[in-house]
Amino acid sequence: MSTFRFQLLILFFTNCVFSQDFAKHVNPFIGTDGHGHTFPGATLPYGMVQLSPDTRVDGSWDGCSGYHYSDKIIYGFSHTHLNGTGCSDYGDIMLMPSMGEPSFDNKVYSSTFLHANEKASAGFYGVKLDKNNIDVRLTSSTRVGFHEYTFNKEGQANIILDLNHRDKLLEGRIRVIDNKTVEVLRRSEAWAKDQYVYARIEFNVPLKVNLVKGENTKLEGLYKGTQLAISFSKQVKKGEKISVKVALSPTGHDGAKLNMSEIKHWDFEKVKKDAEIVWNKELSKIEVTSNDKDKLTVFYTALYHTMMQPNIAEDLDGKYRGRDNKIHVADTFDYYSVFSLWDTFRGAHPLYTLIDKKRTSDYINTFIKQYEQGGRLPVWELASNETDCMIGYHSVSVIADAMAKGIKGFDYKKAFEASKHSAMLDHLGLEAYKKNGFISMDDEHESVSKTLEYAYDDWCIAQMAKILNKKEDYAYFMKRSQNWKNVFNWETGFMQPKKNGGWDKPFDPREVNNNFTEGNSWQYSFFVPQDIQGLIKAHGGKGKFEAKLDEMFNSESKTTGREQVDVTGLIGQYAHGNEPSHHMAYLYNYIGKPEKTTAKVHYILNNFYKNTPDGLIGNEDCGQMSAWYVLSSMGIYNVTPGEYSWDSVIPSFEKVIIKTENGVKTLDAKTPKSYFRYLDTDFEKYAKTDDFNVWHAEIGENIIKDITPVPVIKASGKSFKDKMNISFDTYGKDAECFYSINDSEFKKFDRELILNESAKIKFFSTDGSKKRSDTISAEFFKKPNNYTISLKSKYNPQYHAGGVEGLIDGIFGSENWRKGDWQGYQSQDFECVIDRQTSSPINSISANFLQDQRSWILMPSQVEFYVSNDNINFELIEKINNDIDPKMDKNILKSFDSNKKMSSARYVKLIAKNFGKLPEWHQGFGGDAFIFIDEITIK
Fold first, then answer.
1. Cis before residue 506, ω within 30 degrees of 0?
2. Helix (H) or strand (E) holding 243
């Protein structure tokens, strides 16, 4: 073959590869309806700018992204949006075109629109605004949003910049440099408590300022304040266009000016085309084959959604705002933001290890800098703010997974140091977890979920220690990784909450409550990814484990307890709409039933992902919901991030081509199962048969086998009147229990204990080889009197505080009401009568109440105290009005005290008036407030 012909062939091949249009399959409207919480606007892969319409400004749950498909009004086009989160934020630097007299009332400048006049594709969004017949087209580069407004009638055209759009403005500044250039600072508070966005706005034609809301300053053209908006205007002819470029920066005006250099022209079509090219390059990393156009659209939109975040958070020169709120330079890596790690550690980040190793190392370098500048690894980081939303320290999962898969570009030792630091802190239940081997309801809310997720994270840290040959750390964290056994009830086969050393009762595995994170026991009882074989053994073997999985999938698709909007996509008690369930269908693989994994996975793929606006069964959650689809449809999933191997399932596509940094990988029906398992690893080249497996010994195997679960104390409650019977239950036929009362010598338990006075009991167990469990404690209180109480109101069964006697047991609840020490009453007043058994003088009566307005718990508007000697005729002794502001954004305890002395009374009645319906300023407007009461004291 001649050299010329060869060159032509190469050129032809190259053009074919890069001319494939993967972006045409993207439908940005998928997930914008229902509970998907996505947005349809223009953005680039992992870009700083997400330029999209806002149809929601009320902070409602289904408006978290700013847009919901059911809406009919657009308020404006802002430059930052979150993809599928369950909390509302962003919506920064909002512009809105209008005509005629300008107004800063968003009910005036907003406009209706029709979906028939909307278009969206990868990197582009367009819509016609019905009011004034304005066509809007949007596109973007990584850091610059590009607007094109076509005014289809002549008159005065306005462009509104409203800095009070969506969230609370802490500080606003607008500086008009000239008639084409504006600089903006928007510092705001919402989910991120202190967010900085700098912007440079450039118009393609001169505009004049025709209306301002804000404080004038001594400097001409500079406006500031916490109420700040400005209007720019121009007389336009019919069909005239105005273009606007908006560059963002987290660091300052110089950064925004530098970032504006990404687009040095006014050619909208070129920017749109460039965006398509960038998207095609990223989407081409995975090529799937199918004749089903809807299936291709679902796949490539899912892949698109996984690439919308994390977001680049540095200027073109590498400057970024750190967790310490100072400006730093990322000179050897790229700095990112928006880490929804509780969601994304499961599927999205494992996907990135396959198709984007460079960014994976950038993410981990970002984690390390946040540890150095903010004091710890990120949990849920947003715009250089730690929101502390969700649980665990799942940065360590991302790090361990990258190390296990041999990804370089970050300091392994520093990453381990940061990971160990997160695990050794004393907050969020960790102090009790380290001391007792689990978290109790007495220690922290969501105790079961936190215990389980901490245990998995500890296993991840152990894997890092093994790679770094840190044997003591490996042994320590492998032991902690077995703490799941301390919340596993071997009698019921469920992960259950503990209170005061024993199982909390009553227990319903379907109940969504504050012992679990966005779920129930069914949805957490299979979360032991680090020790699946141990979990199978705890259930009694593969047969019983299979039966338990079958029971979960075949149960009634209905939960009890709290209404949890995140729990959607139910197949029995499996909830695909929320992340804790995402690995469960793959567990059949571990008991030799891969056909059941395939059946469940393919059902989910075919029924819970659609090419429609409501095509996602739950929140997108920053790409995790879509990452599950991408991986599973290709035939792989990472049940245990931190292991180098993948779990497999039969692919749903005829052929899959994955372009990794280690070469092109092809998957189809003829591919050996083992090739899926060792995809993109050092063992891939050996995986040529279905049964190929890599044998490797775990140096901590004996540690795992020898963990002794803590014993369980059995008692009727935490308080008692006359006496309390105490016994213990242990795991294993050879286990023995030892106890100590009030710091006495430990004794072997051989018969039931009887308490006659308040006591603190410490106890531990040993197994047949005399290995000790952790030592835990329980406290029991003898009631200070023989009072009884009759409740005239009905408490919510989730908030029972131990039952009827819980209000007079002498045990006071803390500000953390989720620990279960408060009684909660909704949609009603609270009323009770206390029988003191005899008539005697009263010096004071007090009742403790709690307020957490974010959780709909508000102080009673009034508390009334009555007394009686016959329980029929009651005398009002005092009414006390509430003086706590219902808008206060923190948990508050208040004791309502009556100090009026009574010479003699047997019965005390207390009535607390419910706040009523939640007011318009509240996010739950129109809902019914709770009263939370804990202890009533009579002296």
1. yes
2. strand 240-249
Q: How many CB atoms lie within 10 A of CB 603?
A: 14
**Which two three-digit tokens encode residue 158?**
């306005």
**Side-chain half-sphere CA neighbours of 549 within 13 A:** 25
Distance CA 235, CA 100 (A): 10
Interatomic CA distance for residues 585 and 604, integer angstroms: 10
pLDDT of residue 3: 39
In angstroms, the Cα distances linking 793 to 108, 454, 910, 916 are 47, 39, 11, 15
Closest CA to 425 of 437, 417, 434: 434
| Cβ neighbours around 599 below 10 Å, total | 16
**Per-residue tokens: 554:** 């075949």
- Alpha-carbon distance of 598 to 603, in angstroms, equals 8
Give the range among 112-121, 541-550, 705-714, 896-905 with minimum mean pLDDT. 705-714
Span 703-759, pLDDT tens digits: 444 578 999 999 988 888 889 999 999 887 788 999 999 999 999 999 999 999 999
User: Distance between CA atoms of 867 and 259, rounded to whole angstroms?
Assistant: 72
- β-pairing, 930-938 vs 823-826, is antiparallel
Find the helix packing angle between 447-467 and 412-423, rounded to 10°: 150
Q: If we measure between CA atoms, which residue out of 56, 67, 924, 61 comes closest to residue 565?
A: 61
DSSP conformational letter for 165: S
Question: H-type helices in 468-561, by residue range?
Answer: 471-480, 521-524, 532-539, 542-554
Q: How long a stretch of residues is the chain?
A: 939
Closest CA to 806 of 848, 767, 858: 848
Cα gap 876→896, rounded to integer Å: 15
Instruction: Give the angle subtended at the CA of 413 by the CAs of 410 and 417, to the nearest 5°.
Output: 115
